[in-house]
Specification:
332 residues; 5 helices; 35% strand
Length: 332
């Protein structure tokens, strides 16, 4: 059963309810109430020394949102019942000209520190499968299908997510800045669906592949010690349509073919189904996996096979990948 967040009196600064019929900001039982999350965020203080908590009642909220204020926390009524959704892609026209590109395709973007979300779903609702079925001559077919659900952009740091779902296909979760913690979350995707230059730890999460493809695509800066770190998580598949030996643990992303990145992805004590490639990793854009900082430690499950291309950390090396070390002393 989905987890439920109760509504204790006085705990929340604002409530979002898609069924609310009053005026935005009206105080109901002492709490400001809004129809949309965008309206609640706009009313939040630009700077707050204390956490500003917004409670979201069950419903689908079709909104494209940026959180640019610090100390914002979102708490959903239930993880599967609260869905923040939009359906932009890299090819979606930009109102200012051109197209949105990958960076602009997000459903939710964070550009301020100390953001937190609990018990909700963030999805990019672009219909990847329907688009894939279109003929290449169909003018409606989207060619650049990058479609981000969550984007941690410049200014984001100490972002925490607990019991959340991130749903998409290509480029679902773009962790590109600061430090982030994901605990007991579900991330669904197909191609490079956890990617970027930031530091992110995934603890006790379910990493679900929706097709043969690639899980991680880090673009870690060379002087940054850590990148994407998966600890005690489970690598599974959405259905049996995802065949054995078809999904890479990751590949090294060098944006714009920039040689001055040193991608880092590490899996520690993770269970892996047999959809994982026997050789584990693969190249990207001519950059080899062997040149990247790609490692495993105590992988287990049917997909955790031994292969010369799957480098394993020693006990001493693995001890340097504790959560406190990776997140630089910050613990959500």
């Amino acid at each position: 059963m989905p987890s439920v967040a109760p509504v204790p009196a006085g705990r929340y600064a604002a409530i979002v309810d898609g069924k609310f019929i009053g005026q935005d900001g009206a105080r109901i039982a002492g709490t400001s109430t809004y129809h949309t999350l965008g309206a609640a965020l706009a009313a939040a203080p630009d700077s707050s020394a204390v956490t500003y908590v917004i409670y979201i009642r069950n419903g689908r909220y079709r909104e494209k949102l940026t959180v640019d204020k610090p100390n914002i926390t979102l708490i959903g009524e239930t993880r599967d019942g609260v869905v923040l959704s939009f359906d932009a892609t890299a090819d979606t026209p930009d109102p200012d000209g051109g197209t949105l590109g990958t960076r602009g395709s997000f459903t939710l973007r964070i550009t301020a520190p100390d953001f937190r979300a609990e018990h909700l779903t963030i999805e990019n609702g672009f219909d990847y499968r329907a688009n894939l079925a279109r003929s290449v001559t169909d003018p409606a077919k989207v060619k650049n299908t990058q479609a981000v659900a969550l984007y941690l952009d410049r200014g984001s740091d100490r972002a925490a997510f607990v019991d959340c779902v991130f749903s998409g296909w290509q480029d679902t979760l773009y962790a590109n800045a600061g430090r982030a913690s994901f605990r007991q979350c579900i991330i669904l995707g197909h191609v490079d669906f956890i990617f970027g230059a930031g530091v992110a730890v995934f603890e006790d999460c379910d990493i679900i592949s929706r097709g043969g493809g690639f899980i991680a695509a880090p673009s870690t800066p060379p002087l940054q010690r850590y990148g994407l770190v998966f600890i005690g998580s489970r690598l599974g598949r959405e259905s049996n349509a995802v065949k054995p030996n078809t999904v890479a643990l990751g590949r090294p992303w060098h944006p714009s073919s920039n040689p001055n990145v040193n991608p880092s992805a590490v899996y520690i004590d993770c269970n892996m189904d047999d959809h994982i490639l026997v050789e584990g990793w693969t190249q990207m854009g001519g950059y080899s996996a062997e040149a990247a900082r790609f490692f495993e430690y105590k992988s287990h499950g049917v997909g955790a096979v031994k292969d010369p291309k799957r480098r394993v950390l020693s006990d001493n090396q693995a001890s340097q990948y504790g959560v406190d070390e990776v997140l630089g002393g910050w613990r959500p």
